[in-house]
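Lay summary. Proteins are chains of building blocks that fold into shapes, and those shapes determine what they do. In this project we predict the shape from the chain. Here is one chain we studied, written as its sequence of building blocks.
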Amino acid sequence: MYKPLELFIGLRYTRAKRRNHFISFVSLTSILGIVLGVTALITVMSVMNGFEKEVRERILDMIAHMTVRSFDGRLGDWPQVVESTRQHPRVLGAAPFVEGEGMLMRGNDVRGVLVWGILPEREASVSSVAGKMEEGQLADLKPGEFGIVLGRDLARILGVNVGDKVTVVTPSTNVTPAGVTPRMKRFKVTGIFYVGMSEYDTAVAFIHMHDAQVLYRLGESVTGVRAKIDDLFEAPFVAAEIKAQAMGQYWVRDWTSSHANWFRAVQIEKRMIFLLLLLIIIVAAVNMVSMLVMVVTDKRSDIAILRTLGATPLSITKVFIVQGAVIGTVGTLLGVVGGVSLALNLDAVVSWIEQAFNFRVLPSGVYYITELPSDLHWNDVWLISAVSFTIGLVATLYPAWRAAKTDPAQALRYE
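And here is the predicted shape, written in a compact code that computers can read:
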């Protein structure tokens, strides 16, 4: 009895049994539509976040959070750059590297690769490659011995194992009395790594930095310095601070800019999927409009009596807004519970489906990621909940306006 009149009547209309069972059916389908839409949105967005996290981690297993390079491609004072970079409080480690293009040859098999010259003892401070070794170790790369570490898929393409020889051909040339010949060097395979991304497993090879300097005729120079940040999401800010300290002498890039196209594509894809799945909630809202319009028609005499008792058109509007808001809130809350529960237990659900129907959702022979990842972001949950509730609230405006326009005399003429 202490509730506002509009809230009391709106809640009573929501709980009351319908004389018209079709209205009850449409009301139920509206709630189910909102539940399914919210559940699907939360689950799919969590899966998209999971895939993004998996791929990002695999990319960052190979590349550093930040790189410092010279504008001419040859960094001669790299020891000072390494030391100054490591002095930043957010930097966990820094190491020099040499980067160059080349081709690997073994018999009739030829493959274009990206050759990285590294210092094995420092590589663990900037990347996780050492932990991805399937055969051999990065420490097996010794200066002057011309050893090479290949990705697993690249080794399979060339048909080599640890201990075999491959020939590295660089874009530079040698001028001899016999003419211009490509610069080539024989390397011994000392290890094989596997990251889980074709971009690296089929097109990257590691050699010792000293051997890379000899191969690419860099002398004592390197291509640049790689650094690892304590929080990878702070990399753009740390890169900006280091660039400011260096007075613009070096080209400083972070991982977000070096893979900007990929991350931009993922964000666009997430937005499009969000909009497409939002259509489920919109369809449910249209059903809610139909249901409320039928309720207004069914309650014309009740509305007329309320008007004759002194209820204003605004009060009548609020009554039906309350009724629609309750339906939207119930559907949203049930959808959030279902979506969060499914996102947090997706691995168990997928495992049960695979066992029940005897098939693999992500076959290992096709996909590098064999488990369906899920990464629930509560910001997404709040956003989806707010959008769903807003759509449900907007859907009540037209029926409520129509109820407020009911003419008491016309509605009670034949009562």
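What the prediction tells us: The CA atoms of residues 71 and 333 lie 55 Å apart.
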